[in-house]
Protein: Transcriptional regulator PucR family
Organism: Acetobacterium woodii
Amino acid sequence: MKMEISINEIAKILQDYDPEVGIADQEKALVSNVVLVDDGIKNLNPDLLYICDSRQFREIIKTAGAGNFLICRSQQDPLIGCDKEKLNRIFLKIPVACEVVYEKIRAAFLNKRILTRKKNELMAAHLSCRGLQHIIDVAYEVLGNPMFVSDLGYNILAFNKNADVGDPSWPTASREAELEAYERIKKLNDCGVFKRLYESLEPCIENFDYSPTRWMANKIVIKEKNIGHIAVVELHKPFVDMDLVLLQFLCEIVASELQKETISSGHFNNDFEHFLIDVLDQKITKPETIHKQGQKLKLNQQKYLLLATISFGKNAQNGMSLSYLKGIVKRLLRTEKIILYQNKITVFLASDKKAELSEIVKPRFRDFLETNEMNVGISQHFDDLTQLSKYYLQSVKAVELGITLTPKEKIFYYQNYAIYHLLETAGTLSNLKDFCNPVLMELLAYDKQYKTDYYHNLLIYLNNDGNVTKSAEYFQIHRNSMKYRIKKIEEILSISLSDMETKFSLVLSDKIISFLAEQNVSAN
């Protein structure tokens, strides 16, 4: 197969000489070799590029037909354009010797031949049908440096096992400790490595403070979606421009290979993930279809179900692969029933005992949330798969309300925030202050006037379900002193705190006041 370079490609190589390009015949604008003109030429070969100076060119065009020319301007020649019909030409406005240009173009043709040969070797490895590992082993020989292939979950799909790299980022045959691996990858993520990699249209070259070598990486794309990357370490030889081109080509080959293989990647959803996402997206709505699919996936074999949804703080994700975080959570909770949905991680949990579900937040998982600015919302228990969407929204709402009302917590159970969800919903229809018992405002006014703290005493008493002993212990006072305070509050407000409806009204009013106060803080 004939190897060709376009006139425009050659012009880019000669940018230092301010090339002026003119294309008269686009079909003949590809050349397969270069000729340095020393004598007059009568018959032009349209496959060749003729290099000459301005004087030689003026003589040649008197008799020559169609052809491709590169005209070098000498110091003595005037700056003239070349617009002869039927001639494709590059005119170098900055003076330069023809011999210098000739050597540059010859080197370009040589590099093109080497690049083509190397691409052919990579393509042959792919067409051999010997798998991803074989392609990466051949690529090691072609690029001259070792590499690995990673999916979005930072799972290593293939690497050069015979390479002795000695770099902290290089994969090994032994499995790295889960949280140690996470900290290493988080460090890379925090400095923007993965963000640059997956947003760039070209390979990235990085130099890390903990690594003695540079790395070159490029993303792997399937159907316009990032599914992983290839990283090459600068171990045996320095990176050159050709390596960047070869790495991009290799990523295309690997993308093609991965579509033939079954790989463990967060990009490819399993049957459970497809089912749950389709239900949440309301693509599956018929109860009989949901139950049938649930039985097939063995989702309704246990009595109690719940959903836990993990969301991220402003600095938690910062470009970190959700697929990788999903893998960490999956292993910490020891479950395969986990999805990525709406930039959150949602876990499906089931048990025949409620107590077992309440113990899902194991110490290691809690520590992981606290260390990495993550929060989890946990829905109420349910037993009907047709209600998945409802309980998913509960888990999401638990996080939203929990972050606002109790920001120091990391784990939010919807049942603890259901009343605030009710208030939020009612607040869209009416002014919540209208539902408050006015006696609370009277007590606040009394405290302000007489410099007392009866409002606080009342709240502690109500929070302890009217238990005088527990309330007294909270304030570290005698039980009789607490009884006196409660009696005084009843006298001030002309109410009876033994009345259940009154106590409920006061508790609800306090929750409304707290909810509105937190809303105002969030708004400001």
Q: What stands out?
A: DSSP finds 19 helices and 17 strands in the chain.
